[in-house]
């Protein structure tokens, strides 16, 4: 006796059958006709993008630990989405792309998502038009955009139509860049146009076990003969380090939740401020932890050369210690983050001496430039925290174009039109100081801690300031060695031993003399006094008063700042 196979179904077998009636509640039933048939057909069309997908396709998504596009939308909002351009496509099933408007905490947000259960989310001319319409609508109405990318790329049977679709979407998204912010989540396996399109957005979030890139491993193998895994080619570890992905997270839910968290710090468009959020954290709260951090660091055996994690200072300044760091996996020698101070969204840029002494290399410079540009376009005020010995020198950095990267950072700082404050924590040397948001480059206010060491050069500057004294000391070494050898020989020591001892003694003496000059240089020139006297620094501030002083000054600047777009539209990328 053969057993009938039990197939999975989406319907609950225990649920009583229901029939959709197209009558007014309480209306006396009449004979049905063409009207009811048209209503039924219309209802079925409305439901087709959701109901036409077989359970097998949905199970395949779940087996890959991926959600359907409809499940992803439900993570973003509990309210029903307003789906736009719903039945576009040859089969009237949405053509593998969902576009709509959703409500997130009272804000309208444009959203799109590839439906991988329909034709692997691939792109044709229809999809390009849908995306272009959505992007144009977001720009015209000044609402942010969230993209959920899960596409196999251009739909091959569509021929050039798929390429035209991508080109149309590329163009529309570029035109709203700098007008409304956009957050792109990368799901599944995306290549070619499926990578270019989301990277046009403001921010890219990539979970683990996903891929996006120019081509897939198969093409790399056939063209270059190179065996490489998707993770090694275009996974989150690769893109997180390069800056192609702004944020890397654990899974899809984390990506969507991170998008919601980031959205909380972003304005709707380039004509308004980011959302203000009332806080119960007093603006005059003392920041004792900053005092403790600096005291432990600078009173340690390595003194003022001791590195510390600047993110602790950002945390103590922000409302309830909450801030949102960008590009966390890249160039940790500088921190870029959004936070709130007195309820206002602030962009923080801070040198982090805990990594490479906070020196600015190519990656750090481009990371800062990218962040500055975004804050400038979208009316986000900024606080810079300086603690760096300068740009990282060396053959590798020059070969990578440190001059170009430094110029990009400097240009982005000069261009800032939003309120901005510079707080010097410790080191501010040479070109790094000159290009890091001081008064000449446009800062509204420059403050400094008493621990500030502002100078043309670091300790190496003693070579120039005390060159005559150093020349005499180094010339004296030869005479000290001769004298030491003579004294030891007279005392009965062997010649070789006498020479070695005399040379070691002279070297120790020279080292102690140079150390004394180092201390003298630090006391005389590596301090905030000259900068204060020249007006390069407005005033000193104590570590325990940082939140109060920064918050009150930023509130003053914001009271007199009128948010609005730049005179000509500036895109987020060059």
Automatic annotation (TrEMBL):
Transmembrane segments annotated in the record for this chain: none
Keywords in alphabetical order: Ligase
GO molecular function: propionyl-CoA carboxylase activity
InterPro entries assigned to the protein according to its UniProt record, in alphabetical order: AccD/PCCB, AcCoA_carboxyl_beta, ClpP/crotonase-like_dom_sf, COA_CT_C, COA_CT_N
Gene3D superfamilies xrefs: 2-enoyl-CoA Hydratase, Chain A, domain 1
EC number per UniProt: 6.4.1.3
PROSITE patterns: COA_CT_CTER, COA_CT_NTER
Catalytic EC class: ligase
Pfam name, any one: Carboxyl_trans
Residue ranges of domain CoA carboxyltransferase C-terminal in the record: 289-568
CoA carboxyltransferase N-terminal domain ranges (all copies): 32-278
Name of the protein this chain belongs to: Propionyl-CoA carboxylase
The species this protein was found in: Geotalea uraniireducens (strain Rf4) (Geobacter uraniireducens)
